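The material for today's practical consists of a large collection of protein records. Backbone structure tokens are a discrete shorthand for how the chain folds in space. An example says more than a description, so a record of this kind follows:
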Amino acid sequence: MRGLDYQQSAMYSYLSPEERVPADHPLRPIRAMVDVALKNLSRKFTALYSATGRPSIPPEKLLRALLLQVLYTVRSERLLMEQLEYNLLFRWFVGLNLDEPVWVPTVFSKNRDRLLEGDIAERFFEEVLKQARAADLLSDEHFSVDGTLIEAWASQKSFQRKDGGEMLPPDDPGNPTVNFHGEKRSNATHESRTDPDARLARQSGGHEAKLAYCGSVLIENRNGLVVDTELLLCGGTAERDAAMLMAERIDGDARVTLAGDKGYDTKEFVKEMRHMHVTPHVSQNDRRPGGSSIDGRTTRHAGYKISQQKRKRIEEVFGWLKTVAALRKTRHRGEFKVGWVFTFATAAYNLVRMRNLLTPAVQAA
């Protein structure tokens, strides 16, 4: 019998969002891990807010919503609020009832800035790592490091001389024509008027220069989970400087190994690593003047070959961050904000990776 196309909406619903989301949905284990991390951050949240005044958006809901923005590649907070209006899955994950109003995008952004004032991203990242360590997913002996460029939210037109120079009146004040061909431009003489912290840099010799930041991650070699992050201003030694900072923060006094590509094969870096009781398992760069700083005393061990194989997993992290987390070109300005988002996005990557490691049945389904 053919059913009728009945259009009248029901006034009441007797099913909650919890009942609507399937029991085997991939977000369920992530939501469980996030709730544990947020519960441990409760005291930190309390210290950020006043004891009087009107209640603000709960920080737990803020962070869950920001996680959804990363996990589902939502390009703006305005679109995120639109999704929360009608997406039942998003409402369940954030913790909103079906009839609960969604926040105004500007109010959401203002409340989010309060979280930027504290080290919430790093604390959340650490709480996720504690769960990974409790599940015995982390190696405390073997690590890999690498860096990548994160394009800044600034155009080449904004990269202008610091001293002002001779500037012609703009032909179009809203979108002026800028002819910089033949002009020698460098970070020493020029600066972005849109994002002064951004630096002109290029990933390698065959790529174009762009305004960017240098984001580096440290992964453990057992399961490829990120254990530390560092975002610095671009420069000739930014990746090696970030690697030294993260190597210094590795817990324990026992000797560990650190894998890296040819860019880390310098005498200064290798010497500093060994001074920190870190064995540098970096790729040999025989074309460097003076030859490689790594010799047979390191490369003859079987562990060196294993480190060279494992270090390539770090590209999976960068691939996920730039595609899913939409960090190929950041939407934020300033070293602090970009670093906050970079750390928070890597925490989201760890949650997805841990979900796959701890619940293989969900991955197979």
In short: Residues 335-358 form the longest helix (24 residues).
